[in-house]
């Protein structure tokens, strides 16, 4: 019985990590899309790169269009740390929601 409870706990814990990834929000100016990367600069001058965009966010606004360069956006995103071939940690950001700020 104890083994069954531990197994159930592990399954539930691993599932909640996949579903419950935390999101962050930034407000920034869109600088453009180049080589598969979306570039933004926030109001403090900090640059942020987004390597991925969810299908839901992509349906909201097509950031590959030049008409959005220079516009101010509210960007909701997730971050994930990955290890590259040289064992260096890299952060990969994914846009999960986006809207133009008027």
Please characterize this protein's 3D structure.
With 102 residues, the chain is of the alpha+beta class. Helix content is 24%, strand content 46%. It is built from two helices and six strands; from the N terminus they run αββββαββ. It has helices at residues 2-19, 55-60, and strands at residues 24-34, 37-42, 47-50, 52-53, 72-83, 89-100. It has a six-stranded mixed beta sheet. The radius of gyration is 18 Å and the shape is globular. The termini are far apart.
Summarize the structure.
The chain has 102 residues and is α+β, with helices and mostly antiparallel strands.
Radius of gyration: 18 Å
Compressed to H and E, one letter per element, the order equals: HEEEEHEE
Structural class label: alpha+beta
Question: Using DSSP, what is the number of strands?
Answer: 6
Order of strands across the widest beta sheet? 3-2-1-5-6-4
Shape: globular
* Strand percent estimate: over 45%
Number of helices: 2
The rounded distance between the terminal residues' Cα atoms is 58 Å
The biggest sheet, with number of strands, parallel, antiparallel or mixed sense and barrel status, is: 6 strands, mixed
Low-pLDDT runs: 9-19
Averaging pLDDT over every residue, what do you get? 84
Helical amount: 10-25%
